[in-house]
Write the structure tokens for this entry.
Amino acid sequence: MKRDSLMTDIKTLLPQRAPFLFVDKIISATPEEILGIKTYDSTFLFYQEYFSKQKIIPNMLLVESLVQCGGAGITRLGLFKNVLWGLAAVENVRFFDFIEPNATVTMTVKNLKISQIALKQTGVAFYQDKAILEATWLCLRLPNEIVRTS
């Protein structure tokens, strides 16, 4: 599958658009678990310089990738129609390593709670089978007045 078709698919699952779209593909989604990927290639705009001018992906953008992966998976499940979720809280964030350019990150998100008003999820991001980040977050359903219908 071409990268363009992956991006088209993910755009049907999330309201975010480039350059603020931080998940490329949902590999699978069940009510228990969501798997997704993101490749941070050389065109990624938000690298930050680290020691010795080494570029890395900012840690909070890795957290945002996990959150977007969880949201895209919930949309793919089809449990809600025309619902927009807002990130309300992030907790228990632990960073284990940093990621350099041209890395593909695999994300595993577990659904802790799915209700009409709240989503609670927890996830781990991996690079080359090594955990680089784990976090838990809560999203709340936004009022219908601001949900896009197009």
Q: What stands out?
A: Residues 59-77 form the longest helix (19 residues). Helices lie at 3-11, 59-77.
